[in-house]
Amino acid sequence: MNTSIKGIIAILRGISPDQVLDVADILIGEGITCMEIPMNSPRVFESLELLCKEKSDVAQIGAGTVTSKDQLNQTIQTGASFVVSPNTNADLIAYAVEQKIRPLPGVFTISEAFEAMQAGAQDLKLFPAHILGPTIIKDWRSVLPKNIGIFPVGGIDASNFADFAQQDIQGVGLGSSLYHPSFELSQIKEQGKKFVQMSQGLFS
Hints:
Elements (H helix, E strand, L loop, with lengths): L6 E5 L5 H14 L3 E5 L5 H12 L4 E5 L4 H10 L3 E3 L5 H9 L3 E3 L1 E2 L2 H9 L4 E4 L2 H4 L3 H6 L7 E4 L8 H5 L5 E4 L10 H14 L6
Parallel strand pairs: 1-2, 1-9, 2-3, 3-4, 4-5, 6-7, 7-8
């Protein structure tokens, strides 16, 4: 199984192959070395392959919104090291583990969390996090194995980042608060710097 994921996951929804390396350079320069490209991005596998080829020595690259074995198989071909899903699909999780690519399934209830773990997941995407809130993590931690990673995703921005980051979690997923296709590189750099500074000393 691949190296564990930790820290900020940059969700690059909508990124295109002509943007991906410039954006990755900015993020890596600010200390964000884990990136996810969701399936509903243009020419997603081309972007993933390019990013993996050029940056996999300094960053962890994954695909997001993966909901089928076909998408997972195509992701593997790009060289990506993890797949993120919005839901808990035990068959897909088990298949990812079998194929030696790290699954990060979406969970909304503690029952889904245990279902995902039983299928082989070592990391859980708490989604959508802004609805569940940060304090639920303490309750979950009282019953989850200590080695299971929790990554809140969805609706996290500068207003609630610290509330989540101060919990017993391994990282957070940041989408439009960090990257949007309309953002200038200077804006991405500014946002990246801000969130990295806010996360100093946090994430277990």
